[in-house]
Amino acid sequence: MRRRILPGFGLSLGYALAYLGLVVLLPLAALAWKASAIGPGQLLHLLAAPRTLAALKLSFGGALLAALADGAIGLLVGWVLVRYRFPGRRLLDALVDLPFALPTAVAGIALTALYAPNGWLGRWLEPHGLKIAYAPAGVLVAMVFVGFPFVVRTLQPVLESLESDVEEAATTLGATRAQTFLRVIAPVLLPTLLTGFALALARAVGEYGSVIFIAGNLPMKSEIAPLLIVQQLEEFDYTGAAALGTAMLLVSLLLLLAVTLLQRWSRRWAEVRA
Amino acid sequence: MTIELARLSRRFAGFAALDEVNLAIAPGEFVALLGPSGSGKTTLLRILAGLDYPDAGTVTQDGRDLLAVDARARKVGLVFQHYALFRHLTVTENVAFGLRVRPRRVRPSRAEIAARVDKLLRRVQLDGLGDRYPSQLSGGQRQRVALARALAVEPDLLLLDEPFGALDAQVRVALRRWLRHLHEELGLTTVFVTHDQEEALELADRVVVMNRGRIEQVGTPEAIYQQPATPFVCEFIGKANRLTLRRRNGALYAGPLRLDADPWPAPQEGAALAYVRPEHLALSATALEDGWPARLRHVYLSGSIAHLELEVEALGQVLEAEMGGEEAQRRGLHPGMTLTVQPRALTAFPLDPASGEPEAAARRTLRPHYGQATVARWR
Amino acid sequence: MSAAAAPRGARRWRSRAARAGLVLAALGFMALFLLLPLAAVFAEALRQGARAFLAAIAQPEAGAAIRLTLLVAAIAVPLNLVFGVAAAWAMTRFEFPGKALLGALIDLPFSVSPVIAGLVYVLLFGAQGWFGPWLAAHGLQVIFAVPGLVLATVFVTLPFVARELIPLMQAQGGEEEEAARTLGANGWQMFFRVTLPNIRWALLYGVLLCNARAMGEFGAVSVVSGHIRGLTTTMPLEVEMRYNEYDYVGAFAVASLLALLALVTLAAKSLLEWRYGHEIAARATGARR
């Protein structure tokens, strides 16, 4: 055993592990224990119930679409914030974090008020047959809202580190603007963009507060998986809740793993640059 | 308080930073640990400071086990390579830190601390800058704050890690002289790490040359330069031309030139490695039998020294020679001319016939005699 | 000459137009998607005038919800503050096996749905949970009570402080602390005189974010709360209950307080980034939450 030079190793690591164990691992173990008591056959059976299946489909499908939209919007906003100087840029930059800072319930009722048939936006959209509040489209809007900052905040440092001399070099070598973007900028940005996408996806899949107000929560139609868990708990159906919870937790863990791998991949470029 | 390091070893994942190192440091000595990066010199310094521990071996101070004393209690002043000044404290607070953290029983009074810090700041010529933060100082000033901070705790041993590494060339030379004077004034034992041989040779009483976790040689700067103990020291310190010698019939040959009698015991066949410093190559404009014919390829003048590049066909290599710049001019040396070269002093190592490795322990200094044909003076 | 200048001028004009188009698109999106909802909160809250707004806030349930929210945050934030410092110290100053796994574990609560964060505590402490019977036998209640709210909040806000500190302390390195040791400082002296001053702004930054989330958390606390008016309803839950009772002005009045908290948090966060950016290393850490 090598002696540690700085003090507090045992204390800090011991405390951190004990705390994590009590707050995170023990409760998750309770979920795993409950799920294992159900058994794999029964678990699949529970998940295959039509209402559950519809909820899972909406949660994952909606999250996927929302994360894609976040990727595009986040790239645009991140690019504009890093590359261009215009009045109000700082304010705009601060505002990006609003979906992080605004409590989800507040975001939920605000979006609902906007897109409801008599709301500021709903009253213009409804006559054109665009029903957003109390429909699957509303779920999507809320998911885009909560996931959008992830992409911007992940991209910004990488965009800032992209030295413009690399682009200038590409230009002097005869590349067009589009070629420079596709061949020089995009390859460096891609892993980071994917990381932001995965983070937004993970957030959207599990999102609850901002979605339930705008969704209308019609079974089979606009009901998300986390809401189903809450309803099962209210009906004391702990088995069903645990089954659905386990399935969602596993997907979250997979997404976390994907993010970790993506971040390792994107760091590859950082090393090349240094 | 003599500090003794015995059979010290320290491994990091995959490589030996220190490999069976033995060293004694006498009181009041100024010792330089000199070596290329990765030679283990910083690891050695950190072990002395209590910031690293060896896997094996002992460190004692007058017989007391120093490894049992942790960094806090060791009474060692360490100046970090990048100074590690507390960025949120002023210069005064940085210097006072070591006194202020003492237990109340042994802590000097406020007034006493202030007086001591004042005195130290004057000593390191920073009086008047006490209220500045480290970020508001130049590199040389930061270095002196780090030094004052280390001295404030009245250490038995002062350790400096690449003390001049991060400074401009001019500041570096000035600080070097100043540090030497400070060492003499305070009578401290000082150990510093450097990869700059000029620094080590100019400052230190004794130089410890390290390579790959081992000590290659310990000695005064003169001894290190004039009697390098190993091939590594020959190549690392100063400049040296590297030659391969043949051992035949009891004599040593460099190309066709017989240098000397073979100084080593049997077997007297084989090869040896030799180093000759540029200033130990004598040159003659007349063709001589005892010597290598050479063609002068280039003459570079750097300051007062002329560097000559000589192409020696008999050896199949290019040798570098040196002489005073004025002398070179007076003698009208010019590229293309033919000269005779005679090595005057060489450091030689026999090659082990089995492994082909040079045997450092069998080192000999050769001073060849060339009979009547010796180049006595330039003609 | 002039023939060559014309297309160059046209290209410059095109590039400027493209730039203006991109900026306008970003501005438009942000206004529509971020500013409009924010404006809607305040507009709905004041729809029936300031008097109705004030009356909605003055209701005793609102006061109880505010007090409960402050209480929960006052417990959860310091707990996660101490954890964050301890975890960051261990992670950045020492090498040990399983370090990468520990890092992933610290981040885990961010990728778990808040509803699941609530669910796991119900499975642990609820009537049918692991410790349910034992708690019932001793007359203790965790679920549908304040301890459950605190636990769920601690879970979802656990990573904030640690995540701010780890990259910063990694970048700062341990040399100043080593210097403090060679100068004779003991462990606590080193911590309070060297480590803490070096991380204070990042710590404040993490606490700020942690607090905003703790006060605004909805999903996790909703599951463990039981929605007992005046006892286990935090402000976000109070918003939900009023909304579901069609008391829109009341719901948006409480929501506007939370929106104010969000705005204050954003302002303080921007101020910290602007004033102490290099001491927070905020941007280098990328996405948060």
UniProtKB/TrEMBL annotation, chain A:
Membrane topology: Multi-pass membrane protein
Localization, UniProt: Cell membrane
Annotated keywords: Membrane, Sulfate transport, Transmembrane, Transmembrane helix, Transport
Organism, as annotated: Fulvimonas soli
One GO cellular component term: plasma membrane
Transmembrane domains' residue ranges: 12-33, 53-82, 94-116, 132-152, 181-202, 241-262
Transit peptide among keywords: no
Protein name stated in the entry: Sulfate transport system permease protein CysT
Gene Ontology molecular function: ABC-type sulfate transporter activity
Alphabetized Pfam families for the sequence: BPD_transp_1
Subunit field text: The complex is composed of two ATP-binding proteins (CysA), two transmembrane proteins (CysT and CysW) and a solute-binding protein (CysP).
Family in the record: Belongs to the binding-protein-dependent transport system permease family. CysTW subfamily.
PANTHER family: SULFATE TRANSPORT SYSTEM PERMEASE PROTEIN (PTHR30406), SULFATE TRANSPORT SYSTEM PERMEASE PROTEIN CYST (PTHR30406:SF8)
Role of this protein: Part of the ABC transporter complex (TC 3.A.1.6.1) involved in sulfate/thiosulfate import. Part of the ABC transporter complex CysAWTP (TC 3.A.1.6.1) involved in sulfate/thiosulfate import. Probably responsible for the translocation of the substrate across the membrane.
Limits of the ABC transmembrane type-1 domain: 56-263
TrEMBL record, chain B:
Alphabetic keyword roster: ATP-binding, Cell membrane, Membrane, Nucleotide-binding, Sulfate transport, Translocase, Transport
Domain ABC transporter: 3-237
ATP-binding as UniProt keyword: yes
InterPro entries with a match to the protein in the record: AAA+_ATPase, ABC_SmlMolc_Importer, ABC_transporter-like_ATP-bd, ABC_transporter-like_CS, Mo/tungstate-bd_C_term_dom, P-loop_NTPase, Sulph_transpt1, TOBE-like
Superkingdom of the organism of origin: Bacteria
GO cellular component: ATP-binding cassette (ABC) transporter complex
GO molecular function, one term: ATP binding
One protein family per Pfam: ABC_tran
Gene Ontology biological process terms, A to Z: quaternary ammonium group transport
PROSITE patterns recorded: ABC_TRANSPORTER_1, ABC_TRANSPORTER_2
Keyword Nucleotide-binding on entry: yes
Gene3D superfamilies reported in the protein's UniProt record: P-loop containing nucleotide triphosphate hydrolases
PANTHER family, A to Z: SPERMIDINE/PUTRESCINE IMPORT ATP-BINDING PROTEIN POTA, SPERMIDINE_PUTRESCINE IMPORT ATP-BINDING PROTEIN POTA
Name used for this protein in its record: Sulfate transport system ATP-binding protein
UniProtKB/TrEMBL annotation, chain C:
Keyword Chaperone belongs to the record: no
GO CC, any one term: plasma membrane
Transmembrane spans: 67-89, 101-127, 139-162, 248-268
Residue intervals of the ABC transmembrane type-1 domain: 66-267
Keyword Transmembrane recorded: yes
Membrane topology: Multi-pass membrane protein
Compartment(s) of residence: Cell inner membrane
Record text on subunit structure and interactions: The complex is composed of two ATP-binding proteins (CysA), two transmembrane proteins (CysT and CysW) and a solute-binding protein (CysP).
Known function: Part of the ABC transporter complex CysAWTP (TC 3.A.1.6.1) involved in sulfate/thiosulfate import. Probably responsible for the translocation of the substrate across the membrane.
Protein's name according to its UniProt entry: Sulfate transport system permease protein CysW
